[in-house]
Structure formats: C-alpha cells, structure tokens
Amino acid sequence: MEKQFEVKTYGFNELAQLYFPHISKSSASRMFSHWINSCPQLIEKLEETNWKKRSKYFTPKQVKVLVGHFDPPY
C-alpha cells in the first residue's frame, strides 16, 4: 500500500529530505532550495503566504503550494 503524503508543518530540511531521500541532508536542502529559487512564480505564491527565503519551516498552507507545484514527494 502506498503511503499518503500528509500536509502539515514541515521543517525545511525535513521536507527537502522527503523530496531527495537518497542524498545527504545538506545536499537535499541545497537541491530543494535550488528548485524553489529557480521558479519566480513559485516564490511569488509562497510570499503570498508570508514565506521568507530564510524560513526554517513551511506552514501547511505553504506545503500545499509546494506540493501543488512539485507534486507530493512520494
């Protein structure tokens, strides 16, 4: 049975590791940051939810924006 992705508050590193489970935590965070920063439309949508580039956590609303853009990590 496939695991369902849960929309909740995630730490930046925690969510990055879900998207990049087979690389180190620091590499996953760098890759995830690159994904986000390479899409101005995504940044704009995240900023509408009060997200800041140095945020250490994503709220459930921000996670919905990310999952809507990238698809769930599972």
Overall description:
Helices cover 54% and strands 5% of the residues. With 74 residues, the chain is mainly alpha-helical. The protein has one domain (17-70). Strands 1-2 form a two-stranded antiparallel ribbon. It is globular.
Main β-sheet, spatial strand arrangement: 1-2
Task: Quickly give the structural class.
Answer: mainly alpha
Shape designation: globular
Question: What is the H/E string?
Answer: EHHHEH
Alpha-carbon Rg, integer? 12 Å
Set down the secondary structure blueprint.
Blueprint: E1 10-11, H1 12-19, H2 25-37, H3 40-47, E2 57-58, H4 60-70
Antiparallel strand pairs: 1-2
Quick tags:
74 residues, mainly alpha, 4 helices, 5% strand
Short description:
This protein is 54% helix and 5% strand.
